[in-house]
Design a protein that fits this description.
The complex is a heterodimer of chains A (314) and B (313). Chain A is an alpha/beta fold and 314 residues long. Helices cover 19% and strands 31% of the residues of chain A. Chain A has three domains: 117 residues, Beta Barrel (Elongation Factor Tu (Ef-tu), domain 3), CATH 2.40.30.10; 129 residues, Nucleotide-binding domain of ferredoxin-NADP reductase (FNR) module (Rossmann fold); 47 residues, Dihydroorotate dehydrogenase B (pyrk subunit), domain 3 (Ribbon). In chain A, helix 6 packs parallel to helix 7. The longest helix of chain A has 14 residues. Chain A is globular and about 50 Å long. Chain B is an alpha/beta fold and 313 residues long. Chain B has one domain: TIM Barrel, CATH 3.20.20. In chain B, strands 3-4-7-8-9-10-15-16 form an eight-stranded parallel β-barrel, surrounded by six helices. Chain B has a four-stranded antiparallel β-sheet with strand order 5-6-14-11, with no helix packed on it. The chains are: A alpha/beta (314), B alpha/beta (313). Chains A and B meet through loops of A and strand 5, strand 6 and helix 8 of B.
Chain lengths: 314, 313
């Protein structure tokens, strides 16, 4: 049974194995953990997250800073940055984790200069990951943009531990270049059943959608989900939807799940300072079951994965 | 034999094993930082603000990072007095270090009601009166910027606080912080804590809207430290020293060096705030760093260091 969380969080040191550019402004960073940290991060659940201190990372040379980030790039980094992982692997007494990141601000810009052997301070595992209720046979993974990495890891965990569950991934982005996967994606048609090898290697079907039609279906990824629900065989009680991506996408997925009576879990995102429940920044408005009242839950401690019926989307 | 450095302090009659506390709103209600450190090793602990009724707090975004700092507008989100006493106080009783409860409200009556109820709770050592929160429309900083109101609210709370040590937390953005400090002492404050955050704003230039849902927030972190050190020294020289009132210094502390600056400026103890978000166990490192500094400078008792900054230029 996949638990929501592992209770071995702490402040750990980790070593960069590699930091590789895999697309436009897109990187894959592998981190190596030893000792107690290796044990803690081996138990990392898909959808949990970790807070990385990037304040000590160097800026790239000026000519390598994208025009749009020049003003922001000189800003000192104070707070850690939260990341979920695309893969976790244990080899002997070491644990390796892969995270994908896109250069969007001063901290991710500094990340690009990390190289093998660099040490980083990391806090984790934090929060609650995706969980798998009893009796599920079909898992529908819906992701937008940088929401894809934790669902890649979920696909791996399901294929390793739940052979009875069939996984189908619905992968969306604004444009082909923003799909967080390696290789030429703009040649992939929407008819392909196993569009992405990152999911195919776990035996999972996948299909693509882009807002501008540069890869796969031309339109929001939620349209692929709706079409699939019309054209495929599935049963309400044995199907579950897992979603991670922009809030508008999550809201639409939650609506589809509600209309169809399907269980659905969404991974929420909020600005957070600490990540472990003390700063109270990352409030997510939630329903109180059995009343009209709403309360704020904390994305870091109560989430980031929530049952979609609980969340009040803005 | 090398002599052990004594870094314990007497703080308004309370003995602190060391001069490092965690600041209100950055360490939860009790042992939330227990995953990262042994909370019992702290000199003391200050809870997040408690109000009479529960408060949900502001919509998001509630925070934004700035250059070497951050703005927060949480809106005094808390479980309310009843639930605090019922659910959180038992854990505080287990902490075996002095605990201050930060008291906030929208009206005089609310502050007094919360303080009166807490005065009978054995688990707590003192109250920190929050008359300087910049993030609520009523109460908070409104009370903290007028000396007459400061005296009035401090004395009203003092009357019901019984044996509890009453510490008043001062706002930094006032014409003369010493006038506010003096007013608090006249009202019966046993200690002063300073500074709270600065009201500040960040604008998203693409949307031309404030980033925070609350429009403004409180600026904290290393960006405010030199101002906080200056204000601690000002209040120490002009108000606290002659009246024997201890100061709890805070504002941007993240290293032992930062803490020692405040102590030299006149703070008897210091509180760690924003830095705990980044390094949840940094208070413990700071305690160790203070000991090493004292040993290096042949200081056998930290009292020698408090307010050791000369008055002259």
């Amino acid at each position: 049974m996949l638990e929501k969380r592992s209770s071995t969080k702490g402040v750990f040191s980790t070593v960069v194995s590699f930091n590789r550019q895999i697309g436009q402004r897109l990187y894959r960073l592998r981190l190596e953990f030893s000792g107690p940290a290796a044990e803690s991060f081996a138990k990392f659940r898909p959808g949990q997250f970790a807070q990385i201190d990037l304040s000590g990372a160097a800026l790239p040379p000026t000519e390598k800073i994208p025009e749009g980030l020049r003003d922001a790039s000189g800003r000192n980094i104070l707070l850690r940055r939260p990341f979920s992982f695309a893969d976790v692997d244990t080899q002997g007494n070491k644990t390796f984790v892969d995270l994908l990141y896109r250069v969007v601000g001063p901290a991710s810009l500094r990340m690009t200069t990390l190289s093998a052997g660099n040490l980083l301070s990391i806090i984790g595992p934090l929060g609650n990951g995706f969980w798998i209720p009893q009796g599920k046979k079909k898992a529908l993974l819906v992701m937008g943009g940088m929401g894809a990495p934790p669902l890649q890891y979920l696909a791996k965990v399901i294929s390793a531990n739940y052979p009875d569950i069939e996984v189908t991934a619905f992968v969306g982005a604004k444009t082909a270049k923003e799909l967080p996967f390696e290789g030429r994606l703009d040649e992939i048609s929407q008819q392909l059943e196993f569009a992405l090898r990152e999911f195919a290697k776990y035996g999972a079907k996948s299909m693509l959608a882009t807002d501008d039609g540069t890869a796969g279906h031309h339109g929001p990824v939620t349209e692929c989900l709706s079409q699939w629900l019309v054209s495929s065989a599935w049963a309400r009680d044995t199907t579950i939807i897992y979603a991670c991506g922009p809030e508008a996408m999550l809201a639409r997925v939650a609506e589809i799940a509600k209309n169809r009576g399907i269980d659905c879990q969404v991974s929420m995102e909020q600005m957070m300072a600490c990540g472990f429940g003390v700063c109270q920044s990352c409030a997510v408005p939630c329903r109180v079951i059995g009343s009209n009242e709403t309360v704020y839950k904390m994305c870091c401690e109560d989430g980031p994965v929530f049952d979609s019926r609980e969340v009040v989307f803005s | 034999m090398k002599q052990e450095v004594d870094i314990s302090v007497e703080f308004a009659g309370i003995r602190l094993a060391n001069p490092v506390l965690t600041a209100s709103g950055t360490c939860g209600y009790a042992d939330e930082l227990g995953d990262f450190m042994d909370v019992k090793c702290l000199g003391g602990f200050i809870t997040k603000s408690i109000t009479l009724a529960p408060r949900k707090g502001h919509p998001t975004p509630r925070i934004v990072e700035t250059d070497s700092g951050m703005l927060n507008a949480i809106g005094l989100a808390n479980v309310g007095l009843d639930k605090f006493i019922e659910e959180k106080l038992p854990a505080i009783g287990q902490m075996s270090i002095p605990v201050f409860v930060n008291v906030a409200g929208e009206t005089f009556e609310e502050y007094v009601a919360v303080a009166e109820r807490l005065a009978s709770e054995k688990a707590i050592a003192g109250l920190e009166l929050n008359i300087s929160c910049p993030n609520v429309q009523r109460g908070g900083i409104y009370f903290g910027t007028d000396p007459a109101l400061v005296t009035e609210i401090t004395s009203a709370v003092k009357k019901v606080a019984g044996e509890k040590v009453l510490m008043v937390k001062l706002p930094p953005a006032v014409t003369d912080i010493s006038a506010i400090a003096r007013a608090a002492v006249e009202g019966g404050a046993n200690a002063l804590s300073l500074i709270n955050t600065f009201t500040a704003m960040v604008i998203d230039i693409e949307t031309r809207r404030p980033v925070l849902a609350n429009r403004t927030g409180g600026l904290s972190g290393p960006a405010i430290k030199p101002i906080a050190v200056y204000l601690a020294n000002k209040v120490y020289r002009e108000v606290a020293r002659d009246r024997g009132i201890p100061i709890l210094g805070m504002g941007g502390i993240r290293t032992a060096s930062d803490a020692i600056e405040f102590i030299i400026a006149g703070a008897s103890a210091v509180a760690i705030g924003t830095a705990s978000f980044v390094e949840p166990a940094c208070a413990i490192k700071i305690i160790e760093g203070i000991k090493k500094y004292c040993a290096r400078h042949s200081i056998s008792n930290i009292k020698e260091l408090v307010g050791s900054l000369p008055d002259v230029k």
